[in-house]
Design a protein that fits this description.
The chain has about 400 residues and is of the alpha/beta class. The protein is built from ten helices and 19 strands. This is XdhC family protein.
Amino acid sequence: MRDVLSQIVRWWSAGERFGLATVVGTFHSAPRPPGASMAVFGDEAVGSVSGGCVEGAVYDLAQQVVKDGQAVLQRYGVSDDDAFSVGLTCGGIIDILVEPVSKETFPELGRVAASVRAHEPVAVATILAGPGRAGARKVMWAGHASGSLGPPRLDAAVDDDARGMLAQGLTGVRRYGPRGERRLDDLSVFVQSFAPPPRMLVFGAIDFAAAVARVGKFLGYHVVVCDARPVFATTKRFPDADEVVVKWPHDYLSTAHVDERTVICVLTHDPKFDVPLLEVALRTDAGYVGAMGSRRTHDDRLARLREAGLPEAALARLRSPIGLDLGARTPEETAVSIAAELIQHRWGGSGRALSDTSGRIHGIAGTAERTERPAEGAAEGDHGNGSGKEPREGAT
């Protein structure tokens, strides 16, 4: 819903009723993740739920839902009779909730939109199917909630799970008994998390950092660039960064907010900066820690970090040389190789060319489901920058 939020709030604020279609479950090679939405008002449609495969059918269904006033859960997949008419030509299957939305059916939408704009965590739980009322909704913020899904025990169970998913930035389906029993699956609830964007901390105010900040912003990160040299760490040199900090990198990181969604890119390329910085970085909960440098620099860096007392388990977390082997040379190409490694790390891809693999294109997060052909050895690069049947859950 995030991708259509600005438009639907305008319709909502004007007192209109419109159809909102949201991907709530995906199977196999589905093109859009859970949470992707398309909104329909009159003859206007915004957003996408399948990249074009079933939008026409969803548009028609949304028109009908607005007229009837009843939410509908619809599954779309490949049709044996005519795979190109209403099915997904990629071979995937998607479940889509299509619901009528207005100030009467979703009175919290304005507050949800305000929270998203302010980067305030908020989760929206909606009943999809089961003994409850399809389309019933509850909205949860850090210290309060609005709405109800039914019995108090169901509300309490969903509240606990939704807040846990929100902390991890996860969106997906949870199943319960009619009164919130966790060992039953009579009732399915879709929880959509609107968490603040994950943070990308880029250290080293160099040209490579400017390109990494640019691609990090493109991928949806809140980007911070940090360097101890005020002449280089300026907003003019890093217009794409959300923050530019002038401070010794390890001092800044020692007090910065870091969680499992945080990405740390060490591009300082200087032992007096990167060794103290990595000492701190590898002791945090950051989901990714990468450092630029040649293989010789990497070996020297490891030796210094061992001398500083870091255990092998911590050193094993370090992605260095940073990036995938794409043959990158320029700062922009290097940024792409780093972005590619971040995506691979997040979703568990093999990093191989899809034409050299078989199996699913869109694997389940954290796994590498593709079968690889034998890989040849990779050349060593100068900077190590890339030279050298359960529905899937997603992050939002």
